[in-house]
Amino acid sequence: MIDRVISFIRSGLDDDEATRSLNINGHEGCRCVCWLKQELAREMPEVEFDFEPAPEDWGWAMVLKLGPDLFLLGCSKVSSTPVARWQVRISDNFSRGVLPATRRRKTEAVRRLSRTVEAVLRSQACVYDVQVERGALNAA
Question: What is the distance between the alpha carbons of residues 32 and 14, in angstroms, rounded to a whole number?
């Protein structure tokens, strides 16, 4: 379930041709997700990044671990005029657990992760026009 979709404008995150060719649909986002990985590592040292970015049918994604739980951080380029607009997806695409306590823990963790990504983007001098769309976890 997607917690947030955040879009922003920033130059300098375009993937090179070799990286784009690794994505079956030619989507960009590898460099963007790697940049966010570096920023999150500084802001949330408890997050573990055991996996490299992988191509998805909409962009690039990375699995990260926060406590006992896994989350998905994905990036894709949504437009390039005049400067690239990027979209970040933060989700709990994995099992949410059966027990209510597990679901609450995971929901709070993905929300904290989402708030941190948003704060990181808003704090960057090179990032403009941050727009946040709350996902299904925030609809209730």
Answer: 8
Neighbours of 126 (CB within 10 A): 11
Q: Please say whether the beta carbons of 83 and 9 come within 8 A.
A: yes
Domain 2-138, what architecture?
2-Layer Sandwich (3.30)
Is 11 in contact with 85 (CB distance < 8 Å)?
Answer: no
Buried b / exposed e along 17-50 (16+ C-beta atoms within 10 A): eebbeebeeebbbbbbbbbbbebbeeebeebebe
Structure tokens of 32? 């963007």
Helix pair 30-43, 100-123: axis angle to 10 deg = 100
Cβ atoms of 62 and 55 closer than 8 Å? no
Calpha distance 24→101 (Å, rounded): 39
What is the pTM assigned to this prediction?
0.87
Q: Which two tokens stand for residue 92?
A: 């709990």
pLDDT tens per residue across span 68-126: 889 999 999 998 878 899 999 998 876 666 778 888 888 899 899 999 999 999 999 99
DSSP label of 88: E
